[in-house]
Amino acid sequence: MTATIITPSGPGAMEAGLVLDEEGGRFVVLTFKEPNGEPTLVTFTVPVFQNYVEHLVRTAKAAGEEANWGIPG
């Protein structure tokens, strides 16, 4: 499977929402909007989303440290 690269930019480039499915399942929906492109939606169960947010917080903190940056490979 080919990787999908999403590069949202500008106001409203990313949005989050909460939805219930027909059986009452709870999901978080992230919508990414690229300039001149179709929106990309990603759905998460609540526990997976909560873990994802914790990972994002750790990554955001790491991004502030120069030593964590490098070229893969």
Strand order of the largest sheet: 1-2-3
Measured by DSSP, the beta-strand proportion falls in 25-35%
Distance between the termini: 21 Å
Q: What Rg is obtained from the alpha carbons, in whole angstroms?
A: 15 Å
Instruction: Give the count of helical stretches.
Output: 1
Form type: extended
Would you write up a description of this structure?
The radius of gyration is 15 Å and the shape is extended. The relative contact order is 0.14. The model has no long low-confidence stretch (mean pLDDT 92). It has one helix spanning 46-63; strands spanning 14-20, 26-32, 40-45. A 3-stranded antiparallel beta sheet has the order 1-2-3. It contains 1 helix and 3 strands, in the order βββα. The chain starts with 13 loop residues before the first strand and ends in a 10-residue tail after the last helix. With 73 residues, it is an alpha+beta fold. The protein has one domain. Strand 2 and strand 3 form a beta hairpin.
Question: Helices, strands, pairings?
Answer:
Blueprint: E1 14-20, E2 26-32, E3 40-45, H1 46-63
Antiparallel strand pairs: 1-2, 2-3
Could you list some keywords that capture this structure?
73 residues; extended; single chain; alpha+beta; 3-stranded antiparallel β-sheet; 25% helix; 3 strands
Q: What is the compact description of this entry?
A:
The protein is an alpha+beta fold and 73 residues long.
